[in-house]
Amino acid sequence: MTFSSRLKEEITEFNGNTMEKRAELSAILRYVAKITKDKITITSENAKIARRIYSYIKEIFGINIKIIVRNQKRFRIKQIYILEIKEKVSFILESLYIYEKEKKMKANEEYYEAYEEKVSYLRGTFLTTGSINDPSTSGYHLEFIFLTQTDANFIKKILKNLKFDAKVLKRNNRYMTYIKSAEAISDLIKIFQAVNSLFYFEDIRIYRDHKNMVNRLNNCEIANQEKTIGTGMKQLESIKFVKENNLMNLLEEKTQIVLEYRYKYPESSYQELADIISLETDYKIGKSGINHHFIKLKKLVEEYKNNLH
Q: How many angstroms from the chain centroid is the CA of residue 91?
C-alpha cells in the first residue's frame, strides 16, 4: 500500500460533527460524483472511503443507498465500489451547494465560513482527488487533480485562506493544484489529524534534512581542503622562488620561520600552521598573523618579478 493510500485510510478514521461531514460530502460529490437528473453515482477503489461516504449520506439524509461491488481485472484484480443514490437527489445536491434548480453552482468559499468546514472540504477533496508522494522515495509533492481550472483555483483559494502556498498547473487535459513545501505538506497532514502518517512523514523529513546537511558539510569540508592544498602549493612555489633567487634575507626573521614551517607542512591550514609554530617555537602566532606573513611573501615575489621586466 502506498503512503498516499495509508494516509487516506487514516483520514477516514476521523469522525467529525454534522457540519464537517456535510462539507466533506460536498467536496466528494462535486469532484467525483456522476450526476444525472434522478441519480447520483459515486465510484471508489477504496473500501473505507466508500463506507465513509455511505455512512455519511445515510446519517445526514436518512436514505437508502445501493452499493455495487465489481472486480476490475487490469494487471491485477481489484474491487471497485459503486454507490447509487436515487432518493432526494435534488435536495441532497442543493443542501450541499452543488446544484440549485438543476443547475450546477459555482464553488464558493462563503459556503464554508468556519475553519473546520474549510478543513473538512479539503479532507473530502484529498480523499477523492488528492495524492502525495512517499517522502522516502521521491521529493515532497502533494496534489489535487481536477477537470476544470475553476475547481483547481477554488481549492488554491481555500488553501491560501488556511495559510498554505499552493500553485495551479495544467497537465494534459487536467488541472493540478499542488504544494511542494515539505513543511506545508506536514502541516496539512497535521490538520487532517492523521497522526501516524504525520510521524512517518516527519521521521523521513528529519532523516533527509540531516543527510542533506551532512552532505553539504562534507562538500564544504572537501572544498576547504582543496582550497587549503591549492593555497599551500602556490606558497611553496613562492618560497622556492625566494630561495632560488637568494631573497630570503630580505624578509624578517619571523616571516622566515613561517615560511620554513609552511615548507614542512604544505597541506596545513593557517590555523594548523599557527598552532604548530606556537607549540614548537618561541613565536606565538595566530591565524591572522600567518596570513600577514604570506602577504609579505607575495609582495616580495611580485616586486622582484616586476623589476626583472
A: 41
Cα separation, 116 vs 300, whole angstroms: 75
Rounded CA-CA distance 176/162 in Å is 18
C-alpha cell at 165: 502556498
Long-range contacts of 151-160 (CB under 8 A, 24+ apart): 151/30, 151/31, 151/107, 151/175, 152/176, 152/177, 153/177, 154/107, 154/109, 155/122, 155/125, 157/109, 158/109, 158/112, 158/118, 158/121, 158/122, 159/122
Instruction: Give pTM, 2 decimals.
Output: 0.68
Q: How far apart are CA 243 and CA 262, in angstroms?
A: 14
> In terms of residues, how long is the chain?
309
Residues 170-215: pLDDT tens digits?
Answer: 988 999 999 999 999 999 999 999 999 999 988 888 887 767 777 7
**C-alpha–C-alpha distance, residues 215 and 207, integer Å:** 12
DSSP H helices, the chain, are 3-11, 18-32, 47-61, 89-95, 115-129, 149-161, 182-191, 195-244, 253-264, 270-280, 287-308
Q: Which of 297, 13, 265 is nearest to 127 (CA)?
A: 13
Which amino acid makes up residue 221?
A: E
**Residue carrying C-alpha cell 581542503:** 225
Dist. CA 8–CA 194, nearest whole Å: 9
Domains by residue range for the chain, with CATH: 3-193 (3.10.28.10), 214-308 (no CATH)
